[in-house]
Amino acid sequence: MLKGAASRLMRNAFAFALLLAATYPAFAATKLSDDARTRAEALLPSLIDASGLDAHLRLKTLREMLATTTNEQARGPLLKDVIFYHIDTGVVEGLEPMAAEAIALGEKRHDISLQVYGMLGLAEIDYIAGSIKNAESKIQEALTLAEARGSTTDQFFARSSLAALGPELGNMLEGLLAMTQSVAELPDSAEGEKMRMTAYLTLAYIYTGVSEVDEIVENYTKALDVARRAKIALDRETILFNIASSLNDIDENALARKYYEALTAVLTQTGHLEGRYYALYGLAWIAYDEERYADCIALAHEALNDFEGEPSFDVELYDLLAIGYARQGNAEEARKYRQIVLEQYEKYPDFKLVISDADDQLTEAYILAAEGRYKEGFELLNKARRGLLDDQFESFQVSVTDLRSSIVTLIEKQRTEEALRVAEASNKRLLLILTFFVIAGAVALVFIMRKHNRALARSKHAADMANRSKSEFLANMSHELRTPLNAILGFSEMMEQRVFGELGAKQYGDYVGHINESGRLLLDIINDILDLSKVESGKLIVRDEIVDLKQLLGDLSKLMAPRITPKNLTLKINVPPRVPHLKADTRLCKQILLNILSNASKFTENGGEITCRVYEMDNEDVVIEVEDNGIGMSPDELEIALLPFGQAGTTATRSHEGTGLGLPLVKSLMELHGGSLEVRSIKRMGTLVILTFPAERKVTAEEAAASKDNEGEAGHQRPSRSGPRNRA
User: Fold this and answer.
1) Whether the Cβ atoms of residue 56 and residue 235 lie closer than 8 Å to each other
2) Residue 658, helix vs strand vs coil
3) CB neighbourhood size of 562 (10 A)
4) How many CB atoms lie under 10 A from the CB of residue 204?
5) Residue 76 belongs to what H/E stretch?
6) Measuring CA to CA, which residue among 105, 107, 49 is closest to residue 82?
7) Beta bridge partner(s), residue 628
8) Under DSSP, is residue 172 helix (H, G, I), strand (E, B) or coil?
């Protein structure tokens, strides 16, 4: 009886540990925005209806044309088109002889473009076969040739193929930046439009590596728009599959099923029934996530037995079978498929580039549990947990390095803008000179004007490109930075709560607290940077709601309590009874006021006072003022504080942490609402911040009450959904 009790205890501990392992990585899961959901639902019928633009059907037609064309001059363009659509669809059957012919014919006719396409075709064959490093080497060779002697579009096609390897090689940011920049620079020719569509397809594919569904749907929508406009075919099957699998990754299984059903409909249209393999693969993962292990196993078997799939997908299905049987308690079958996975790793060593040791260890831990070897499973789970943390920290280090590069880009952008201002001033001076010497120097001055205008245009273009690159780059870093930070925070919380027992020396407990506190501070900084970049890139959308200012400020005063209590500060909230409500974004308003109040508490000495008051002006604008009697700022310091990354004081004298993004972010968020920010400050006396919302955002108490009643009638029985779960 005692032995049985101990066994049950071990099983419960193991289950609890598995639950933790599945929960903490899920902190990084993305929630689908309402805007992205709307776009995803609109894109679905558009893809089904675009049968005339199907890449598989186009590829079939082109191959038939190539088979009947013997003239070398005519075969060259046909070979390029055929190879392009082979790469686009990932279909490599019959590609090798055509790629080899393209290289040979290109060398014979001195056609660099044809050679580049042939080399990229051979790289695609290696990639599909699982030889990722070989594929990368061939693409680099093609890129070198294109850069030396090829056209702009040849260079881009090679770079897009290299960028598509980013999720497998762990280097997504470089590809994101390259594709984002190239979209605007590609020519408006037929070939340029084809490459522009490829850029959007590549961007969407890169984002599948982090399940950023908003960006995936946006870029696929843009690709479809280009395809329609330029009459270019695109691979609808891949688009549907990638969106479906990304939706599955963030637990949007109902919408994911709709996409897999649409994939089946498209396969029926084209007769490309081999694609059913990928639909079965995705549905098997959905069944696993929903803990329908019997369905999961049946779907995986159907995919493996009835179709010839890609080795990289096969190994995932074998791994899924191993986990599925283990979760059913069938250790013998689980062990059999686990052995197949290990054999696949030996056959395709590059697969280890995309599957971490921690994932492997989690699968093995499930099997050990099914075999009743709970202690070994628990120990392996601990090892997997440590490995996962190491992987996340390594990813974090890489992301911080890339963030540093993006800051350099920002500095270069500011320098370019300064050059632009100098050029504009120079241009104005030339206009004055022209007034005085209109006859004598007309020809010479017109020539100089044109020269300066060209310089001005180049400077403006450089400034626009640098600004766009910086904003896009920072906006694209959400998962790259937040994922490892969430892991750090999650695991440090586990250590603080002693989930797996005592830490040892007392100092370790203090260190864990410092790690958690520092991680949260860094996450706040990153969120500020990303929010500011979203505003600049136009991706931050204001979602208007009825905002009760009295309730909002009351909530904020509670949030501020941990910051003001240790310093013995007094926070006064003054909201008149009849103050109007606002039509604004509640989350952004909360962020605006929290930033201002946090600044006030940070820069107010012990025992100081902070006052927040709301009032309506004669012109019906609604004003919120936050006043403190803190250290204040001089006019020069105030000017610096209103610039991005600007902070009052020098590095040596500044005693308060921060990025210098608080006030610039508040200014941007107020402008999004059509409002304004004004800051008045006197050194050593205090600071007054004035937030003004325009009259059109005012909502009377009666209008707010009527709106609330309408919402109450329409809001009954909203469906709820459980939070995201990690697969293994």
Assistant:
1) yes
2) coil
3) 9
4) 25
5) helix 72-89
6) 105
7) 610, 687
8) helix
Tens-place pLDDT, residues 34-79: 888 898 999 999 999 999 999 999 999 999 999 999 998 999 999 9
CA distances from 399 to 173, 205, 406, 527, 657 (A): 9, 19, 10, 14, 21
Q: Which tens digits make up the pLDDT trace of 539-572?
A: 677 888 899 998 889 888 888 888 888 889 999 9
Structure tokens given for 298: 């049946």
The CATH fold assigned to 545-648+659-714 is Heat Shock Protein 90 (3.30.565)
Q: What is the DSSP letter of 186?
A: S
User: Are the CB atoms for 139 and 151 separated by under 8 Å?
Assistant: no
Which position has the higher pLDDT, 351 or 316? 316
Can you tell me the distance from the alpha carbon of 502 to that of 708, in angstroms, rounded to the nearest whole number?
Answer: 51
> Going by C-beta distance under 8 Å and a sequence separation of 6 or more, which residues neighbour residue 113?
80, 106, 150, 151, 153, 154
| Predicted local confidence at residue 11, as pLDDT | 40
Q: Are 108 and 79 in contact (CB under 8 A)?
A: no
* C-alpha torsion angle, residues 439, 441, 444, 445 (rounded to 10): -90
Q: pTM of the prediction?
A: 0.52
Average pLDDT, rounded, for the chain:
76
**Tell me: the pLDDT tens digits for 10-35?**
444 444 444 444 434 333 445 677 88
Q: What is d(CA 179, CA 386) in angstroms, rounded to the nearest whole number?
A: 35
Residue 389 CA: distances (Å) to CA of 13, 366, 699, 726: 21, 19, 49, 15
DSSP line for 254-310: HHHHHHHHHHHHHHHHHT-GGGHHHHHHHHHHHHHHTT-HHHHHHHHHHHHHH----
Quick one: tokens of 446? 């017109």
Q: How many CA atoms within 13 Å lie on the side-chain side of 564?
A: 24
**How big is the chain by its Cα radius of gyration, in Å?**
30
**E strand or H helix that includes residue 583:** strand 581-584
CA-nearest of 211, 239, 129, 646 to 411 is 646
SS3 457: helix
Place of tokens 């006719």: 109
How far apart are the C-alpha atoms of 549 and 624, rounded to whole Å? Answer: 9
- Within 10 Å of residue 506's Cβ, how many Cβ atoms? 8
Per-residue tokens: 630: 């803190």
DSSP 387-402: HHHHHHHHHHHHHHHH
- CA dihedral for 79, 82, 85, 86, sign (positive or negative): negative
Residue 5 vs residues 9, 143, 379: alpha-carbon distances, Å: 6, 64, 20
pLDDT score for 723:
30
Inter-residue long-range contacts of 491-498, CB under 8 Å, 24+ positions, other chains counted: 491/24, 491/385, 491/389, 492/516, 492/519, 494/20, 494/24
